[in-house]
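Quick one, tokens below:
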């Protein structure tokens, strides 16, 4: 817990070394590293003034893209149908009933297959925008962070756990929309 009696600022940066977590530190002690300002770093999950929820701890979006593309290869598929996606999603992503996340069917119909083809291709997955991948990541994983759900947590995650009748996924886009609109505080 942090207690402040004057203005304070807290900043957190979470890094993933590689999308497939294959970073090997051997030899790093011999490397020369150049300074890179944070303004030049590609950040997937950000906070904008007015956001009610700080996206934290969600799946790396490029890892998500890789998982989807690997499913095509593992199953030797040209097209990933709705049924294929549901089987993949249910086997890959753990969801508790009280997470209030959309079903795999709903996710495929409203976010993934926005053209209503009944399937997606590898090219479709390669062309998914970052925002679309973030929307998918939010839909397969409940919001969480270092203290979400703890006794001291008064945030959205705790409120959603306490209110099992609450909204399915606050801000979850409908009719194929990709971005999540956010209200100013």
């Amino acid at each position: 817990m942090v207690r402040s009696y004057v203005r304070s600022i807290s900043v957190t940066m979470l890094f993933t070394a590689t999308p497939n977590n294959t970073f090997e530190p051997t030899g790093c002690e011999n490397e020369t590293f150049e300074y890179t300002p944070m303004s030049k770093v590609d950040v997937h999950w950000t906070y904008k003034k007015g956001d009610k929820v700080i996206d934290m701890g969600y799946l790396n979006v490029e890892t998500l893209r890789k998982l989807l593309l690997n499913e095509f290869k593992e199953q030797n598929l040209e097209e990933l149908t709705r049924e294929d996606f549901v089987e993949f999603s249910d086997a890959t992503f753990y969801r508790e009933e009280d997470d209030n996340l959309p079903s795999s069917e709903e996710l495929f119909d409203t976010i993934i297959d926005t053209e209503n083809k009944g399937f997606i291709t590898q090219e479709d997955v390669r062309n998914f925008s970052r925002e679309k991948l973030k929307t998918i990541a939010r839909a397969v994983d409940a919001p969480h962070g270092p203290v979400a759900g703890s006794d001291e947590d008064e945030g959205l995650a705790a409120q959603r756990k306490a209110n099992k009748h609450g909204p399915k996924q606050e801000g979850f886009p409908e009719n194929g929309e990709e971005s999540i609109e956010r209200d100013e505080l």
